[in-house]
Amino acid sequence: MGELPEIRRWGAHRVVLIVLRLLVLAAVVVSLIEPMLWPAIPLSLVVLLGAMRYELRLTDDELVFRELIGSHRIPRVEIEFAKFDYKPLGVYLDIHRRNGQIDHLRFQPRMTSTELTGDPATPDSAAYQITRWAAQPGD
Questions:
Q1: Mean pLDDT: which of 43-57, 79-93, 111-125 is highest?
Q2: DSSP H stretches of helix in 1-139
Q3: Residues in Cβ contact with 21 at an 8 Å cutoff, skipping those fewer than 6 apart
Q4: Do 85 and 45 touch, CB atoms closer than 8 A?
Q5: 101 and which of 52, 92, 97, 115 could share a cystine (Cβ 3.0–4.6 Å)?
Q6: Which residues contact 27 (CB under 8 A, 6 or more apart)?
Q7: Please, are residues 87 and 63 in contact by the beta-carbon 8 Å criterion?
Q8: What pLDDT, on a 0 to 100 scale, did the predictor assign at position 4?
Q9: Contact between 48 and 21 (Cβ < 8 Å)
């Protein structure tokens, strides 16, 4: 069995973006047919912009987490490991730094993930990929 390809980007999936763009187009068409429904255009644009903005990406030397407003950049040399964890307001991706600091990023695992039940992260998990990436020597 071959090694799984390294996943370097999560969030803002192409299929979701296509569907949301169709939603904006549908809102425009409906507004042309029935002008009273024009508020559907800005509402669908806000949803589209929000979905496009959330992204977790690994570059050669840092982890970049983009949110609706702002972003977090964590240098690769500072990351020790990553894991998903429950918090009072939801599920977070905890990035544990070598100096003991923990960054709580609001990024959830896949719906089929078993990490939150205490099982170890699978190779296709974002937490597993980040931990593996951080352990490798810098390029």
A1: 79-93
A2: 14-33, 40-53, 126-135
A3: 48
A4: no
A5: 97
A6: 37, 40, 41, 43, 44
A7: no
A8: 43
A9: yes
